[in-house]
Amino acid sequence: MTDVRVVWTGLECRIRQEKEDEIYGTIQLITGMDPQPVVKFPDSGTLEFGPPNERIFSAQRLLYSGPAKDISVSATLVEYDSGDVEKEKQVVSDAVAQAATTALAAFTDGAGAAAEPLIDLLSGALVDFVADDVLGIGNDVYNPSAAFLPKDRLLDADTRRKTLQRPDDPRTLQFTDVIVLSGTDDAGDPGVYGLYLDVQPVAVAPHGDAIGTPTLSTGARGPAVEKLQRLLNAHVPDLPSLAVDGVFGPVTDGRVREYQRRVEVTVDGVVGPQTWGMLIGGEQAQEAAAGTPVLSSGSHGPAVRKLQRLLNGHVPDLHRLAVDGVFGPLTDGRVREFQRRLALTVDGVVGPQTWGALTH
Length: 360
Prior knowledge:
Layout lengths: L1 E14 L5 E11 L2 E2 L3 E3 L5 E3 L6 E12 L3 E9 L5 H24 L9 H14 L8 E2 L3 E5 L1 H5 L1 H4 L1 E5 L2 E7 L1 E8 L5 E14 L19 H13 L14 H14 L9 H17 L12 H13 L14 H13 L10 H8 L1
Antiparallel strand pairs: 1-6, 1-13, 2-3, 2-4, 2-5, 2-7, 7-8, 7-9, 10-11, 12-13
Helix pairs in contact: 1-2, 7-8
């Protein structure tokens, strides 16, 4: 038996509309005939694509985890100019949800409608919203786009996985599928973005984990909390182990928040799809996508976590570093010790030479 995880790995700016694009958007999944909640991105404000070496945004956000089934994915993108961005995000999100409802109704109702691919109906409904100016916002809306991922395509994802690399951005993205969004603003300037998805088949034992990944928060109890506590103990080994007692109390809440802080997801103490996704596999994917940027004291994020894991593996005779994504004095000292042992320049800066020694 095989389940799948669908992860939004990130966004690539192929052609900017303006010198600095400020954008926001949505992703909508329909799994089988079930519409999932619309994902608005980013969590707050806008994404900015400006300097030439900033053309890739790494998201690593879990969109779906469950049985393999036909999935329809739609995406919208908006170039922000003015107004209340959070209210406008909600307007777009509501319109996308209504488009999905409209498409599903047409797909399942009436003479011959079901013979049409759902993806065509969904694309048409999305385009109608933009063409009719139903959104009613003053920003430039890219042409919505959608893709159909049949079950068979999901299950052969491992054979299709590729790596996005650009000569002008050190970051990379792993992906199996991409949705291209393009548009033209009022001045006639074109813009093109690629929204990348990574489908990850997950083998499930015949009597596999029936616990699942329910949303958890303070007060929750039971096997799912025990599963959470085991995962937290494995991912935050530098702190005292949690009691695996199935009770989501203050100590577990504090550990969840600490883990969320380390992996740079929303710190709210709620274990939903985003946090579960990172605990079950997204953390490593996020680190892989971070590439090998130059790091030094004060750096933070997934690339620093990757560095700390590598240092622990290469210098096993010393006390293990906390894999917390913070390049502080201890990490700086360990980098210098590694550089000294390899006869590299001892400067505490992790550049191509040090990364090369760590990864080969």
